[in-house]
Amino acid sequence: MAQRKRTTSRDTRPPLSRGLRLAAATATAAAMAGGLIAVAGPAATAAPGAALTAPDADFDNDGYADVAASASYAYVGGKAEAGAVTVTYGKEGGVGRSVAYSQNSPGVGGAAEKGDRFGSDLAYGDFDRDGYDDLAVGAGGEDVGRDVDGGTVQILWGSPSGLKGSTTLKDPRPSGHDRFGGSLEAADFNGDKKTDLAVGTGTTAVVDVLRGGFTRGGATNGRYTVTADIQGAGRAGVMNLHSGDANGDGYEDLIVDGFENTQAGYNANFWIPGSGSGLKPSRDQKLLPGVITDLGDVDKDGYDDIVVGNQWDSGIPGSARGGAVHVLHGARGGPAHGDRTKITQNTAGVPGGGEKGDFFGGELDLGDIDGDGNLDLLVGAPGETVDGVTDTGAVTILYGRADGSGISGRGAKLLTQDTPGVPNTDEKGDFLGAEVHADDLNDDGRADVILGAYGENGGNGAVYPLLSGADGSLKGRSGIYPGTVGIPGTGTPRLGVNFAD
What we know:
With 501 residues, the protein is mainly β. It has one helix spanning 456-459; strands spanning 36-37, 66-71, 84-91, 94-101, 118-125, 134-139, 152-156, 166-169, 183-187, 196-200, 206-210, 223-227, 237-244, 253-259, 267-272, 285-287, 292-296, 305-310, 324-328, 340-343, 363-367, 376-381, 394-398, 413-415, 432-439, 448-453, 463-468, 474-475. It has a 5-stranded antiparallel beta sheet with strand order 1-28-27-26-25, with no helix packed on it. A 4-stranded antiparallel beta sheet has the order 5-6-7-8, with no helix packed on it.
């Protein structure tokens, strides 16, 4: 089951979309021990390795999920905003080693240069069909010859020892846009059992689809383009890409999150269905606006449902916009024909309350956190103020109902850095929840919770893995910081601003 998504931000506010991320500040890394989070959910019943908790990405094919995170504004070799990516490898019993990769790393093509922004976006898949997941990395600011900010995409190849070596993918339309690789999504859009790669730029509404059949020499099985019906000029274009099968026909579909540069300035989401010949934009459907999406069958009816996060949605009737998430239930005729569910911080059972600037729904991810066989939803609110601490951020866990009817506010739990078990403490501008991810790092049948706080330590950023217990608890022993993986604290690396989901 595909459950993938993306994110970004332009300033010190919480992220708006994956291809627009910026970063801020300096400091050194520090790790603090955490305890136990008493967030009891339904008892775990799923067997280890159950389908809902199969690893999203497994670069060394050891059965444990691996998590890739961006620090796309990191200094590398003294070059500002050259960018880096970290991978935290899962292992038996918990969290394994974390390794940083940049364009100065052995085996990685190119060279770290100012403004490359290596890690602008990430996508995973077994591109060469050798049994090891690979990592596609966008470098949206890469200068390609005389093409300033033309952008590029590299595939870092999986192996028994993890990511090793890389191949640069050629931009098929270098004169048609800038910032190639600003948004990425890997999926099988035509059902041929080969992983395709969709590439957006953020500067146009056109998405390049590179057909599966990738070789380490850079060849693909062909390419084509699809164009979302995004209106306006200037900033109108693709921000995020996601995939899943919302009409249950066996082909993965593409969700395009774009920005419509209209007077209202709304974000626009489009569903483009897959088929035996690939994506079919002629059959697209416009969805509710939002900045981020994820897909998964939350109500177990055989159709992937689309969860839309809209951090600007009004969660307070007639008042400020605190944010909301919408579940668009899949249907045979596509998501526009299914039922809809809306959840805000004012929904019964959801902790706290909607307030202006919370940005509830600014990030989200699906996974079976309590192991009961139903998908749960992580929702980031990176602008949340907690106990007077501005923009420290928070994450809400919304559990799937035991009867399989979908996500609700019942029994929801709130996580902050002052919650026992979450490393570190609430501080102004941490933006906890700017990225969230659910994945099974230790192969125990429960998705673990991985949180990003790109504002941590004055903008250095951090990643916090929390292991899910059989009793519904979450335990995080320490955080992953730039200093712990060899990324300089110079400038504003913002580790954790983006995960490969």
